[in-house]
Amino acid sequence: MGGRVEGGGLFTDMFTRFAPSPTGYLHLGHALAARVAWDCARAEGGTFLVRMEDIDFTRCRPEFEAAIFEDLAWLGLKWPEPVWRQTDRFPVYESALRRLESLGVLYPCFCTRQEIAAAVSAPQGEAAPLYPGTCRHRTATEREARMGGGELFSWRLDAARALAVTGPLTWLDRKAGIQKVDLSTQGDVVLARKDVSTSYHLSVTVDDAAQEISLVTRGEDLFEATSVHRLLQCLLGLPVPEWQHHRLVRDESGKRLAKRDHARALRSLRAAGSTPEEVWGLVGC
Ligand code: GLU
Questions:
Q1: Where exactly are the structural domains of the chain?
Q2: pLDDT level of residue 125 (50, 70, 90 thresholds)
Q3: For residue 146, how far is its CA from the centre of ligand 1 (angstroms)?
Q4: Pocket around ligand 1: residues whose beta carbon is below 6 Å from it?
Q5: Concatenated DSSP letters for 227-261?
Q6: Which of 63, 80, 109, 252 could bond to 135 as cystine, CB 3.0-4.6 Å?
């Protein structure tokens, strides 16, 4: 398959990936996510990779990582070693961040969660509130003084500036078709957290490119986040894959499964005597 490119080479091979965070045990939703990536790779003679998205070292645990490998192997999936861990790649994220900084599309944000919540008037449901842009307006002098004074800060993407640099962009979802990059639901996302010098958005974009992932598959809860990744790819001169967002597995009340739903954890099902075939049946594969 030849991927569409921007700044990089054509994809010579087809790669997909399953990229869990080892913050809990895998459940039926993860089984479906892994299976979609696996099936796409198999259908196109590609390779299925596993990557540990373990940057959140306050929540990630080695026993969850070991359990993930065990559960995936029990399901019958196979992947090449070594598996990449994002905690091995902080210097790479750091250099991507510096490149973005040099383009003038980042700003330091000193706000606490409470300050952001207080500055946002309307309740915005379960999702984190859209950042109201408080720190975007600070002067260079104030920024330097506060950073120099040792205050904790995150780095945020100035979405409007970034889009002014790139111009209009699109991305392709294999099911939903061509999508326009639209950051209205994402706002100025965090690219490096106060406590961890990267973020999901930055690491996933950098790593998908570094691993030459030509088809990114993931749940439709992340559909809108893809605009952020497409924008970052353009700013960083990375190749552009295709995407396929898939349905989510939900419980009886329609809520998507979470890591705390132990009853639907793959290891609980296995302990209760389920077979891998039964698990695939439960997620409709
Ligand atoms: N680590 C992310 C998650 O577990 C992966 C999302 C993605 O595939 O991009 O939700």
A1: 7-88+249-285
A2: low
A3: 33
A4: 19-21, 53, 204, 218, 222
A5: HHHHHHHHHHT----EEEEE---B-TTSPBP-TT-
A6: 109
